[in-house]
Amino acid sequence: MEYQHASDDFERFLADARERADLVTRNQIWTMVDAVLRVFRRRLTASEGLRFAEVLPPVLRAMFVTDWDVDAEPVPFADRAAMTEEVQAVRGNHNFAPDTAIACVAGALRAAVDPQAFERVLETLPAGARDFWAA
Description:
Elements: H1 6-21, H2 26-41, H3 46-53, H4 58-65, H5 80-89, H6 101-112, H7 115-123, H8 129-132
Helix pairs in contact: 1-2, 1-6, 2-5
């Protein structure tokens, strides 16, 4: 069933994230969500990332793994301000992510996933993962 409604669920997720971030266009919110996922993904091994992806809805799961260099060494988690700057630097000329981008995506993501499964997977990830997804 999750695949039958994947597009509708993704559009609801984007609408929620757009409202939280006070952005206007679908392209703006897509870029912000993509950037947040990429910044988080940089901090995980392939095994950790695939475990995390398992709890995401199908379209977000696909976004999370697209163009991933699974051989890259993970970087450490940083403070929220530094990671927000990283988010804002992804496709910098087309990125309108506010300073609250990570929290906005985190809130929308938490509303779109099974909360227990999400918490269980966060427990298996490096220190900093839970703080990253704090809304």
